[in-house]
Prior knowledge:
- The protein is an alpha/beta fold.
- It has 11 helices and 13 strands.
- The strands form 3 sheets. Strands 1, 2, 3, 4, 9, 10, 11, 12 and 13 form a 9-stranded parallel sheet that branches. Strands 5-6 form a two-stranded antiparallel sheet. The protein has a two-stranded antiparallel ribbon with strand order 7-8.
- The mean pLDDT is 93.
Amino acid sequence: MSGPALHLAVELDGDGAxxxxxxxxxxxxxxxxxxxxxxxxxAVAENAGFTLITLDDGVLxxxxxxxxxxxxxxVERAAFVAASTSTIGIAPVVPVTYAEPxxxxxxxxxxDHISAGRAGWVVTEEEQPGAARAWxxxxxxxxxxRARESRDxxxxxxxxxxxxxxxxxVRSVATSRYLDRDRLHYVDxxxxxxxxxxPAIVPRPPQGQLVVLGRPERVSxxxxxxxxxxxxDVAAVASAAAGAGTPRVFAEVEVALDTPDATGxxxxxxxxxxxxxxxxxxxxxxxxxxxxxxxxxxxxxxxDGVRLRPLVLxxxxxxxxxxxxxxxxxxxxxxxxxxxxxxxxxxxLERPANRFAAAAALExxx
Length: 366
């Protein structure tokens, strides 16, 4: 546990966690992917005091229902949001089941530069066979093989982020030198299915290493900064958190709050007429905002943070902003991110030393 403050993240993909959330959205379906809406929703989350926003993604269209769906790439959305926000952390979902880790590491390092050190990475897997066809690659079959690709992808990305030492960029006009070549390093990774030599094509991120979030049963705990854990009740979440083995742990919580126009139960029932809200084994709160405050206070004894997945963003996010976060703040259970603070610092994580610089310093000391 990082301390008394509970860090709150919120998933902002689409119109909400329910596949038919668009039916209750405050905008017409054709406005879903507009820059103005993306910026507006992110601004609401930042002004409310959330620590982090996440943006889901995948190579295949989201959902499996007749409802209209669509999304822009998570990294692209994250870069746009980074330029229009100043304090909130931004973590896109980027699977490395088929994507090239070299390119993923470059994209994420660039995002950390754009956001001035507020970037994270949610590691997931591409499980559908159609994903392999979309990438034009052989299928990665089985949980073990997908876990291997995630493990290798994170390992490569972390090595590439260190392949530039912090002072590798010289930018000397007098000597016409841009880089100190001695401070660029090959990573020389060889896995079961590919090899990467490096170095990266983007300077080391401001945070040194981005904050990496993922499920510890799919990515080795030693490669994660934040474990995302499930559980249908607080006891199950507490058990999963205790066994995560990561510096920080966030619980996944789905929420459908009472609003001035309808209760959470009524809103869920309205959407269930069109499509089911799939049970993914997560803790789910349907009801009043003050009861959610009580639940989050209880969870704060077991986890460092919570990622909320609102039923309908346009309905639940205002309630979270007006009633939930202020109540948690009054009880000193949450703290707003401070301007000029990196996501690692906000989460109480140290900025890691560059592995190559540390090795050279150790060698010099001998």
